[in-house]
Amino acid sequence: QLQLQESGPGLMRPSETLSLTCSVSGGSVSSKTHHWGWARQPPGKGLEWIGSIPYSGATYINPSLESRVTISVDTANNLFSLRLTSVTAADTGAYYCARLLQGDVLDIWGQGTLVTVSS
Amino acid sequence: EIVVTQSPATLSGSPGERVTLSCRASQDISINLAWYQQKPGQAPRLLIYGTSTRPTGIPTRFSGSGSGTDFTLTISSLQSEDFAVYYCQQYKNWPPHLTFGPGTKVDVK
Fold it and tell me: What is the dihedral of CA A88, A93, A99, A104, to 10 degrees?
């Protein structure tokens, strides 16, 4: 049974770089039929797709975040990562990693990790 | 960007009742629509993709329909565990630019 687990800092200061990791168990990030991605949710608000990556390494990023986001995959350690630069309070929220069916439907989600940006 | 809207924002229902949630896309997305359920403090769960396909393990009381710009999610007989927020998400374009609706909260009447 595939499981995803996010890890990263809970509290950040404005202008810092957020780095999150998603560890995959019960499956492989080298799967040719799935992509791996990230979504986020500000407190009390809706969902926003951040971006995704197939095993090949090509990345697809939400245009609204494209200048600040990097997504990468580590096949050796069976995980994938999110990097978000120059964070502000607007980046506060729950961050979820997920598996995507053919790159477009998030079928398996991690439990999420809360990131707070505050000075 | 394809904008997705949902109505109503809140829907009050009683156990056993049939309820219908609506989702609209700002342009034709064919049947490239998914629905998710989210309970407080939990990650979203995929309920429906391809407008009407249920993943393994999703109860048959959840059904989806529509095409083009207008879609619906129907819960045929509301159960206590169904009180949650429901999001729709479109995935028409490639490269992907996935967008979610603002959600419909289903609460107890």
Answer: -70
